[in-house]
Amino acid sequence: MKIGVFDSGLGGLVVTRAFIDTMPEYDYVYYGDTANLPYGEKKAGQILSYTLDALKYLISQKCGLIIIACNTATSVALRYIQQKFIPAYAPDVKVLGVVIPTVEEALRGGAAKVGVVATRATVASKIYTAELRKLNPQLKVTEVAAPELVPAIEQDDFAAAEKIVAGYAPHFAEMDSLILGCTHYPLVKNCFRRLLPGVEVISQDELMGAKLKDYLRRHVEIDICLSREGQYRFLVSRSERHYQDVAQKLFPGISICPKEVQA
Ligand code: DGL
């Protein structure tokens, strides 16, 4: 069994790189649903349906542990997937998301005020507020959607992305921690850090590798089922020529393929 990583597009490569840097010995299959990007602007039912299709695909590729790197898919679909879909469809498969590990990290230093910047669908789900308040009911949480940020990063327009970040930064100036709740935002984490020097900026690329390693240490029954030949495949539902360049920036040295070729 391999480790599957799912994202709505290529942004999840940043987290996959963190997994591979931390645990290079495992076999990984990355699947980016580039045909249906962006999820952050879609309705919940549509996001759930795309996510279920993606999971079925990764399960068909012999993934026994799947991490949904996409914050939007985690926010909207993970609960249904864990409680209804997996028990009926593939009870031996384990599916994890990115919200809970991120929330744990954001509260580690005893924060009393936490900001969350994410896609519109993630903010609408209110999952970050709910999970943060489970750990600290007194917590002050400010969630803000930044819908222009993903397109600017996707288009490689970092001058525009910096301006957008500068527009959102004042919302979070009083926070103790700020969660970057979107696969693409690690690419602008330094910008947030520069503009918010007193705020602890939580970036998923910096925490997910250690979190997954710790999870596998605590779940030996899953770990022993995972193959370790150090093989990595990076698949997308639709390939466009410039994706290869984007992928190189997110994870230098890799090559992405359309899923049909590899299936
Ligand atoms: N992967 C999405 C997320 O982490 C961002 C891109 C999208 O909107 O699909 O929320």
Could you walk me through the main structural features you see in this protein, from its secondary elements to its overall organization?
With 263 residues, the protein is an alpha/beta fold. The chain has two domains: 2-97 and 207-258, Rossmann fold, CATH 3.40.50; 100-204, 3-Layer(aba) Sandwich (Rossmann fold), CATH 3.40.50.1860. Helix content is 47%, strand content 18%. It has 13 helices and ten strands. A six-stranded parallel beta sheet has the order 4-3-1-2-9-10, sandwiched between helices. A four-stranded parallel beta sheet has the order 6-5-7-8, sandwiched between helices. Helix 1 (13-22) packs across helix 10, helix 2 packs across helix 3 (71-89) and helix 4 crosses helix 6. The longest helix has 19 residues, at 71-89. The radius of gyration is 17 Å and the shape is globular. The two termini are 16 Å apart. The mean pLDDT is 96. The structure holds D-glutamic acid. D-glutamic acid binds at residues 7-9, 11, 37-40, 70-72, 119, 122, 150, 182-184.
CATH fold naming of the largest domain: Rossmann fold
Helical content (DSSP H or I, runs of 4+): 40-55%
Q: Profile the largest sheet.
A: 6 strands, parallel
Ligands, deduplicated = D-glutamic acid
Straight-line N-to-C gap: 16 Å
Q: Order of SSEs, N→C? A: EHEHEHEHEHHEHHEHEHHEHEH
Q: Nutshell version of this structure?
A:
The chain is α/β, with parallel strands linked by helices.
Which helices and strands appear, and what pairs or packs with what?
Elements: E1 2-7, H1 13-22, E2 28-32, H2 44-60, E3 63-68, H3 71-89, E4 94-96, H4 99-107, E5 113-118, H5 120-125, H6 127-135, E6 140-145, H7 149-154, H8 158-168, E7 177-181, H9 189-195, E8 200-203, H10 208-218, H11 220-223, E9 232-236, H12 241-250, E10 257-258, H13 259-262
Helix pairs in contact: 1-10, 2-3, 4-6
The structure holds D-glutamic acid.
